[in-house]
Amino acid sequence: MDTSTIASEFFDAAPIFRINQVEALNKDGHQNWHRLILHSFNDGLRYEAVIHRYETWSQPSDEPEPEFHGVRGEGDIEKNRERAARRAKRKIRFACKSAGFDRMVTLTTRQAIFDRDVFQKMMEKFIRLVRKATGASISYVLVLEKHDSEKTAEAKRGSLHAHVALKGRQDYKLLQAIWNFRVCSGRGYVRVTNGSRKLSSSRIAGYISKYASKSVSDVAFNKKSYWISHNIDKPERTVMLFKTQQEALNYVSHLFIERGLFSMMELAKGIYSWCDEALGVIWIPAG
User: Fold this and answer.
1) pLDDT tens digits for range 229-262
2) Contact in structure between 162 and 182 (CB atoms under 8 Å)
3) What radius of gyration, in Å, describes the C-alpha atoms of the chain?
4) Which is deepest, 30, 115, 143, 183, by most CB within 10 Å?
């Protein structure tokens, strides 16, 4: 797929989608499009774009709709888990980028805790006490994970710990005091993943969503494996239709160059981070 189109074409691509929207609504019959789904993460400096094939039918089908016989909790469990893991990764990635998280802490216990409900109550108490101590409504993404590395002692293998994404330098002594003494009765540890060194929200999102994917795959039906605070804004979502994949790429290229997120040199090398030519899907993060 060619993304090395000359710069003048980028600036002509912007109004194309408006014409396509009208055509998709008014033209009869089956149509093939390429749909662009663009998420902007609040500050206008971080984006995610997905381009994929999209079909429209402006006339109803003569075939009757199949009856739905699904029962919650039944069906193809593996496929359901895969869908849940993808959904969790997307929600967590969006939350981390929207909040601009740049720090991560890991909460562990000396005593092996295997009961997810027990650990969840401990986490809820920790968040509640941190909010009370700081007087602030902290933003966070919290993910549970099982100890499963080769270094883990046999007695603790499969026990739970937590990863928490946060924004800005934290009072780590306060976090340690609350988790160790107030929640774990002197048997807890707080490990700061990156200390005073900032990580990009994209890297934090990558780490946390990786843990979430593992956790969702392990968790029993109807059990939570991650928590996102309610004070994180959702990204702005824009959907556009284009007749060709190249038109959609041109629009995204124009936008990202205009925002200073890509240079012409980077564009010439190919801006997409993930591409499946068989499915016709391109994923492009920026910022």
Assistant:
1) 999 999 999 999 898 998 898 888 888 888 888 7
2) no
3) 23
4) 143
